[in-house]
Write a structure and sequence with these properties.
The complex is a heterodimer of chains A (340) and B (159). Chain A is 28% helix and 24% strand. Chain A is α+β, with helices and mostly antiparallel strands and 340 residues long. Chain A is elongated, with a radius of gyration of 26 Å. Chain B is an alpha+beta fold and 159 residues long. In chain B, 35% of the residues lie in helices and 17% in strands. The chains are: A alpha+beta (340), B alpha+beta (159). The interface between A and B is medium-sized, with 23 and 25 residues.
Chain lengths: 340, 159
């Protein structure tokens, strides 16, 4: 009876978004007379940072301070349509829609500023601090707030913009079944090190080392947060979470947090993460998405590490102690570890 | 039958009528109006309703409100001191220790109970202290880091 160490590796290609009838999201951007901007979305921030990232994208595109942008995701009945927060699509799809809306709003803002300054809109630039000025003659400038007031009360203009980003439905080749379900892919590779107890069948994850390539990281702390939390969820799927095995049938399955297991703070391991940034040509400022995909490489890496440790292939998730013990019994005990 | 109960909530005396058998979570949220206490499972398994009763972490959802008469209860609503955030709150912000935020009140109170008792805990003691609190987003690591950082901040202040 012994504990065996093993190491497993897995790599994934992850399509950003999905392909069910096309994959669109919309955004609306408008300013109020105080010169502050509102982004209206139906996209949901579940804590992953959608509001923060779309706020950054909008402020950067408009050329105004981030403090002057508010993202409103309050109501999917009245907001512009969104397919949803899933498939790592939020930053890519919604971010692109926000960028398009902000571009249109910026054009109106620059026209309104040009009218106030009596210059051509093409000669104007934003300073990122809430002012619009003439290129090469920064003393000739006007604040975004004054432009907003002028647009509202003198010019009768709405400083606003509409945006949609659509990845159209991919045709399927009738001969081969081939299709192009996504326009950009994120990539990841993860190494898991485990210890398997051949007496109890328990698997402890000792360390994870990973590299994620997810386009440009628009908010590096939020990306890191997603990767750390997502890897925990991958580990949870690999080893813990299930409505089984509860006997004699699923009516006796888990009903609550007492019976539905997830790894706790004592079950986590060090995770060394490297983020590779290769900007996506069609991503907002080059971003892809770090959401759902960050859990995915953990499962096969852990399964491979268990095989490396004790030589058994468990093909059903989660890899519970019972399944490990049954597999070990079927092959007459565990061999000496092949990884040191 | 409704029973009058008096206790101290974040240092202020509170008097409320509670139904017989009512739990402290419902009493705090619905009768007293302290909405910083969250309910997750209502059966003592998720930890998000953790409050301090006489300094010890307790699950408000399985604590009878009547048994709290004369006791001192602390919730997240009492963490701030004037304009300043509690060092734990600051550390949770700086270390991105929340995503959806639903477990955060319970995590903060479980951590406060630990640091009040043991200002410089080991990592293992931090893990033990939040072992009854479920988080579905962060993977726990940022929360553990935040609590350790708050304890180090406390060391610097008292040094």
């Amino acid at each position: 009876m012994a504990k065996h160490r093993g190491r497993g590796v897995a790599a994934i290609n992850y399509p950003i978004g999905m392909n069910l009838g096309g994959d669109p999201s919309q955004a609306l951007v408008h300013s109020n007379p105080s010169g502050k901007f509102t982004v209206a979305l139906s996209s949901i921030d579940l804590g992953q940072g959608m509001k923060s990232v779309t706020r950054q994208i909008c402020a950067e595109t408009l050329g105004v301070p981030i403090e002057d942008v508010y993202v409103d995701t309050a109501d999917s009945d009245t907001g512009p349509h969104c397919m949803g927060s899933f498939a790592s699509r939020g930053t890519h799809r919604v971010g692109n829609a926000v960028m398009a809306a902000a571009r249109e709003a910026r054009a109106v803002m620059m026209e309104a500023a040009a009218e106030e300054l009596e210059v051509d809109a093409g000669d104007l630039e934003t300073d990122g601090r809430g002012n619009i000025r003439v290129k090469g003659a920064p003393q000739k400038s006007i604040s975004v707030k004054d432009v907003a007031v002028a647009a509202q009360f003198r010019q009768g203009k709405t400083i606003s913009g509409r945006g949609i980003f659509l990845v159209p439905l991919s045709d399927v080749d009738p001969e081969t079944g081939e299709m192009s379900p996504a326009t950009c892919y994120a990539h990841a590779c993860l190494i898991a090190e485990v210890e398997v107890d051949d007496e109890t069948g328990e698997v402890a994850v000792l360390k994870m080392t990973s590299a994620y390539e997810l386009g440009r990281a628009l908010n590096p702390k939020l990306v890191e947060q997603q990767l750390v939390g997502g890897a925990w969820m991958g580990m949870s799927h690999a080893l813990y979470e299930t409505p089984e095995p509860y006997y004699p049938d699923t009516r006796n399955g888990p009903r609550d947090f007492n019976e539905y297991l997830m790894p706790g703070p004592g079950d986590i391991c060090p995770h060394d993460i490297t983020v590779l940034e290769r900007p996506a040509p069609d991503g907002p400022f080059g971003a892809k998405g770090p959401g759902e995909m960050c859990a995915n490489p953990v499962l096969p890496a852990i399964a491979n590490a268990i095989f490396n440790a004790v030589g058994v292939r468990v093909n059903e998730l989660p890899i519970t102690p019972e399944k490990v013990l049954r597999a070990l019994k079927a092959k007459n005990g565990a061999p000496a570890s092949r990884f040191r | 039958m409704r029973t009058p109960v008096q206790f101290s909530l974040n240092g202020e005396e509170v008097a409320a009528f509670v139904e017989g058998g009512a739990n402290l979570l419902d009493a705090l949220r619905e009768t007293v109006g302290d909405l910083t206490v969250k309910g997750g499972c209502w059966q003592g398994t998720c930890g998000t309703c953790t409050v301090l009763i006489d300094g010890a972490p307790r699950l408000a959802c399985i604590t009878l409100a009547e048994t709290c008469a004369g006791r001192s209860i602390e919730t997240v609503a009492g963490l701030r001191r004037g304009p300043d955030l509690h060092p734990l709150q600051t550390a949770f912000i700086e270390h991105f220790a929340a995503q959806c935020g639903y477990c955060t009140p319970g995590m903060l109170m479980a951590a406060k109970a630990l640091l009040d008792r043991k200002p410089s805990p080991t990592r293992e003691e931090v893990v033990e202290a939040i072992g009854g609190n479920i988080c579905r987003c962060t993977g726990y690591e940022p929360i553990i880091e935040a609590i350790l950082a708050a304890s180090r901040a406390g060391d610097r202040r008292s040094a």
